[in-house]
Specification:
The chain has 74 residues and is mainly beta. It has strands at residues 6-12, 19-25, 38-42, 49-53. The strands form two sheets. It has a two-stranded antiparallel sheet. The protein has a two-stranded antiparallel ribbon with strand order 3-4.
Length: 74
């Protein structure tokens, strides 16, 4: 498996309400970090630091909202 892979997460900025797409490195060793851990992301919409769940796209402390879905257009 290639450990230099990147993937995208999508989250909603809590300050601006804008959906933000961000690339993260997907190089987790199998035993060090759970698959649904949080990563720190510098938000391009508001320039603040957010902690985003790397699997669901939910922000740390966020409840009751469905994750932002990524739709593809042809």
């Amino acid at each position: 498996m290639n450990k230099d892979m990147q993937r995208q997460i999508l989250f909603r900025c809590p300050r601006t309400g804008i959906n933000v797409q961000h690339r993260i490195d997907d190089e987790r060793p199998e035993s060090s970090e759970p698959a649904d851990g949080y990563v720190s992301v510098r938000c391009p919409a508001c320039m603040s630091l957010h902690f985003v769940n790397s699997t669901t796209g939910k922000l740390l402390g966020e409840r009751g909202r469905q994750p932002v879905s990524m739709s593809r257009s042809a």
